[in-house]
Write a structure and sequence with these properties.
Blueprint (H helix, E strand, L loop, with lengths): L15 H4 L2 H5 L4 H7 L7 E2 L12 H15 L13 H10 L7 E4 L2 H12 L5 E5 L4 H7 L5 E5 L1 E2 L2 E2 L1 H10 L4 E4 L13 H14 L2 E5 L15 H9 L7 E6 L11 E4 L2 H14 L5 H10 L3 H27 L5 E2 L7 E5 L6 H10 L2 E2 L1 E2 L12 E5 L5 H19 L1
Parallel strand pairs: 1-13, 3-4, 3-7, 7-8, 8-9
Antiparallel strand pairs: 2-10, 5-6, 9-10, 11-12, 12-15, 14-15
Helix pairs in contact: 4-12, 6-7, 6-11, 13-15
Length: 409
């Protein structure tokens, strides 16, 4: 008897694109991260990435803090820990606004905070109000959860509250996301009057406010202004009655690589964030949190002063060079702090294809269009002054000015 060997039927090739979930299909690459790939040549002066100045990192203090943490905590510094975060660090954060540490959740970078807040707050089709322009990392974080974005009108003072009030009369919004201090990407700051009105207006309409404040400590001109969160606490009397959620970070005032940030919010929301974080990474690295806790009392205040002085001087240098070298009709914001300023060029000039021409002159920026949730901003760009020295700023702005003169000729 002859044994006949049967050939296996051909197996269909799996198309991974068809396997992605609706949330997976909504994921996209960061426009800035993709832009940075073309600006990595060592001779390109980059005003593109929002990078803290590495020469200002407190290396010796971090080295000493790491050693102190290992001496004090031993193996516990390298062990699994609680999801909520290192208690001494949460206590320090909470004391700044006189809330219980239970209302503070430590995050692995503020970007994780945005992602987890999106996960627990945003449902398919929920209306999310964002500034025009807004931080594109927030758009990237929220997008998988299926929001319906509406852009809030803005002017030189930030969110236009008259326009927002009219919008809320006809729109049932779930969440309002904003960066009130030295906004990314524009560098604008929301005034105290507008902040008070924003808190009152959103409370009246039942809109959750997510206040993203990674740059708030980096003010180099003007007077300090209370956060939206502080104003909400003042109005409602305690954290559990506040409709404002606050996101803070140590990345811009100490170092970004330790990836330490936090969210402070009503206890019911914090508890839900704990559950979401357990599914994401269990907890922020224990050792990193302990190092930060060693630095916040003595090192961080001096570090903030140093960073503010340097960034303030670099911002002034950049604006002076722009005045000298940019064509007539090109305008920019005047930041009171932070790391960015916003440039508007004449209508009809698209800054996205302009980037390639600028890179040919060894200077880079971020085109403005990706910062708009619903399109627009083609004639804008973001410049960061934080990580370039005065000489680089002078050469880079001169080259960018030549690029603009050529494009507008």
């Amino acid at each position: 008897m002859t044994r006949t060997e049967s050939r296996p039927e051909s197996t269909p090739t799996l198309r991974w694109e068809d396997a992605f979930s609706p949330a997976g299909r909504r994921l996209s690459s960061s426009a800035i991260r993709e832009i940075l790939k073309i600006t990595q040549a060592p001779d390109v002066i980059s005003f593109a990435g929002g990078l803290p100045a590495p020469e200002l990192f407190p290396m010796d203090a971090i080295r000493q803090a790491a050693s102190s943490v290992l001496d004090r905590y031993g193996p516990a510094a390298l062990q699994y820990s609680t999801t909520e975060g290192h208690l001494p660090l949460r206590e320090w954060i909470a004391a700044r606004v006189n809330i219980p540490p239970a209302n503070v959740q430590i995050m692995t970078g503020s970007q994780q905070g945005l992602d987890l807040l999106g996960k627990v707050l945003i449902g398919e089709g929920d209306v999310v109000l964002v500034e025009a322009p807004t931080y594109l990392g927030a758009l990237q974080s929220f997008a998988p959860y299926g929001p319906r974005y509406l852009q809030m009108q803005t002017d030189e003072g930030g969110i236009d509250l008259d326009a927002l009030e009219e919008q809320l009369k006809t729109t049932r919004a779930k969440l309002l996301y904003c960066v009130p201090n030295f906004q990314n990407p524009t560098g604008r700051t929301l005034s105290l009057e507008r902040r008070r009105r924003l808190v009152e207006l959103t409370a009246r309409h039942g809109v959750i406010v997510l206040e993203d404040d990674p740059y708030g400590s980096l003010r180099f001109t003007g007077e300090e202004i209370p956060s939206l969160y502080e104003l909400a606490l003042e109005a409602c009397g305690g954290p559990d009655g506040s409709h404002v959620v606050y996101s803070g970070s140590f990345s811009k005032v100490l170092v970004p690589g330790l990836r330490d940030a936090w969210v402070q919010a009503a206890l019911s929301l914090v508890r839900k964030l704990v559950q979401a974080k357990q599914g994401a990474d269990l907890h922020t690295p224990t050792f990193n949190q302990m190092i930060i806790a060693e630095l916040v009392h003595d090192v961080m205040p001096a570090q903030i002063g140093r960073v503010k002085a340097v960034y303030g001087a670099r911002a002034q240098t950049m604006m002076a060079e722009m005045k000298a070298h940019f064509p007539a009709g090109v305008t920019h914001t005047v930041p009171q702090g932070g790391m960015f300023l916003w440039v508007t060029v004449p209508e009809g000039l698209d800054t996205t294809p302009l980037l390639e021409r600028a890179v040919a002159r060894k200077v880079a920026f971020v085109p403005g269009a990706p910062f708009y949730a619903l399109g627009g901003g083609e004639n804008t760009m973001r410049l960061s002054f934080s990580s370039a020295n005065d000489g680089q700023i002078a050469r880079g702005i001169r080259a960018l000015g030549e690029t603009l003169h050529e494009a507008l000729a």
